[in-house]
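Page 47, continued from p. 46.
Same chain as before, 186 aa.
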Amino acid sequence: MATNPKIPQIPKQKYPDDHAKLYLVKKSRFPWGIVALGVVAAILIAIVLYLPRMPRVTPAPAAAQVPAQPTNAQVQLTNLTMTPAPTGGAFYLQGMIHNAGLTAITGLRVRATFDNTAGQALATQSSVVKGVSGSSGTQIEDFTQAPIQPNQSRPFRAYFDHYPAGWNHQIPQLSVTEVTATTPHS
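Result:
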């Protein structure tokens, strides 16, 4: 076995700290950061300009421009009577209607509440009110054809197609649910 007692020599480096050198990348003189900010700002401005806008709110008309609206207090129902209809459990409710408002009534809807013998509400039913005309009181006319003028009274009729079982057969409680009217004439 042959051994070489001589230790190999490592050549000396030219620069002992060669591995610690930093190489700097040349910087460009063009301002890319400023250009990027400008592009982002332009995109944001375009988005804001092209987004849909809310419609402009127009002011509500002044009180002098709003016509008087009909109310339930405008209608007064009196002299109520009931008449059985020729069919089944239907009946007519007749009476007088008085227009206490400032507009001509062109339509009216009422709700009847039927009570039992203990006075508790059993059911409600809605009906359109029609005017009654003619000498015999049998001709029915729509209020749109012949409106009830302010401070005028007229006979009316409302048709109810059935009454609930257990009803006390008293005149049901009426409440006005809908009133339509024309604008007053000057």
